[in-house]
Structures are given as structure tokens and as C-alpha cells.
Amino acid sequence: MKRIVLTLALFIPLLMQAQMGFEVKEIVVDTSFDETTGDPVAKGKVCNTGNDTIYLYWRIEDNMVPLGWTPYFCDKNLCYGPGTVECPEEEPVILAPGECGVMDLHLLAGANPECGKFDLVIWERGNESNNVTMT
User: Fold this and answer.
1) Which of 2, 38, 89, 100 could form a disulfide with 47 if both were Cys (CB 3.0 to 4.6 A apart)?
2) Which residues are paired to 61 by β-bridges?
3) Rounded to whole angstroms, how far apart are CA atoms 57 and 122?
4) pLDDT mean for each 10 residues of the chain (135 residues)
């Protein structure tokens, strides 16, 4: 019985990692700017670590965001205008095995130079509960 429990304890983390199929290169992206910065950006990257093509979706969640901060997001496909806080269902980020794509969060000019935080939740198509969060 102890061997079964030990075996499960060793293999469950491996199974969970294998199911993810992608890796976020920067879990925490830190950037700073002031009133002279034209286009402040927090640069991120996600890579397909599996053997199959994957379809990823993302969602921006604001978390301690100062007044005046207006984000827009660029992924491998294109840059989405302000107000788009979730990847359109018809425009997933498609990554071939071994391929990486950008996940960049920009702030419109005029944002107040204060501390703030956005979270970017990324998941594979059909499995939103199995996700990774970039901060």
C-alpha cells in the first residue's frame, strides 16, 4: 500500500505538467515607467513544450490598478485595442511544437506612474481550469 501511495505521489506532478503542454517563460514581469515613457510594456512569452500544436487563450484580470491605467494586449497574432480583456474565441494563439509567442501587456500613454498589477491568465482550448497566471 505504501508503494502505491508513493508511486502516485511521484507521478501526479509529472502528469499535471504533461497535461499543460505549454510554458510561460516569465511568470512575473516587472516594468517601470514615468510620464516620459511613450508606450510602457510588460513583455512576456509563452512556449509550446509538447509534441502537438496547441491553441491558447488569455484573459487580463486587473488587480490593484491605479486610475488612468488603460491596458491593451499583444499576442502572437496581433495587438488588441483597449477594452479587449479576453482572447477572442475565433483568434486563439496557435503554437506549433517548440514554437514561442509574445504575450505583451501595454499601457496607453498618460498612465499615472504608480505601482499597479495586472494578471494574465493563459489556458489551452477546452481546459480553462488548467491555467497559468502571469503577473
Assistant:
1) 100
2) 119
3) 6
4) 37 42 72 69 89 94 79 91 91 94 82 76 89 86
